[in-house]
Amino acid sequence: MTADATARPQRKDGALHFPLQDSEQVTHIYRRHWIYLWPRTVWYLLLALAPVIIAAVLVAKTAGLGGTAGMVFWIAALVYLAYWALRIFFNWYRYNNDIWVITNQRLIDSTKTTPFTLKLSTADLVNIQDMTVERDGVLRTLFHYGDVVCQTAAKQQEFRLVGIPHPEETQLLVDKERDRERTRGR
After folding, report:
1. Residue 35 in 3-state DSSP?
2. What is the pTM of this model?
3. Is 105 helix (H, G, I), strand (E, B) or coil?
4. Which helix (H) or strand (E) holds 65?
5. Helices in 11-164 by DSSP H: which ranges?
6. pLDDT tens across 39-70, in order?
7. Contacts of 121 (CB under 8 A, 6+ apart)
């Protein structure tokens, strides 16, 4: 093997914001259940629009939406709506970039809360000792989502996949890949 071959950079999958190892293949990418995104988004929209509509009606009935009072109202309303638009965008961004990736070699927890932050944790599949599925409550049962808790032999002993759809299927997939990786390593 030449020095160029050992010094080449790790390959990067287009859908991921971190590199994969040479022989690593993505088996599945998980995001939180949609219930973590849409109720909050609707709530933010209500908080954004209701006060503006109420204030518009009040200003229209008292001072009118034309003239100085109307101009002040529209500027304040635009600033207020821009704030809530940013909140809604970052809510979507966090949801879209909080992922768990199962590969044929490891389990990866990647969280990007903003474009400038990244928290990346990995656990080799062979180091996962046992797993627990936690699903409690009416909503989690009705909408089929929950947590998968993996115990590892590493320093950070608990690896938690929070709020993922169909956690039993995820546990089965990790079990299958872990067993395959263990038999390959022998």
Report:
1. helix
2. 0.77
3. coil
4. none
5. 38-62, 67-97, 138-142
6. 999 999 999 999 999 999 998 888 788 888 88
7. 108, 109, 156, 159
Residue 116's alpha-carbon distances to 16, 93, 111, 119, 186, in angstroms, are 15, 12, 11, 10, 41
Q: What are phi and psi of 183, to 5 degrees?
A: -70, -30
**Is the distance from CB of 134 to CB of 98 less than 8 angstroms?**
no
C-alpha to C-alpha distance for 11 and 26, rounded to whole angstroms = 12
Q: How confident is the model at residue 6 (pLDDT cuts 50, 70, 90)?
A: very low
- The Cα–Cα gap between 148 and 126 comes to 17
Alpha-carbon span 168 to 133, nearest angstrom: 7
Q: Compute the distance between CA of residue 108 and CA of residue 21 in angstroms, rounded to an integer.
A: 12
Contact 154, 95 (CB under 8 A): no
pLDDT digits (tens, 9 = 90+) for 139-186: 999 999 999 999 887 676 788 899 999 999 999 999 998 888 888 865
Report the distance separating Cα 144 and Cα 129, nearest Å.
25
Question: Residue 145's CB: how many other CB atoms inside 10 A?
Answer: 20
* Overall size of the chain counted in residues: 186
**Is the pLDDT higher at 82 or at 27?**
82
Which residues touch 156 (CB under 8 Å, ≥6 apart)? 121
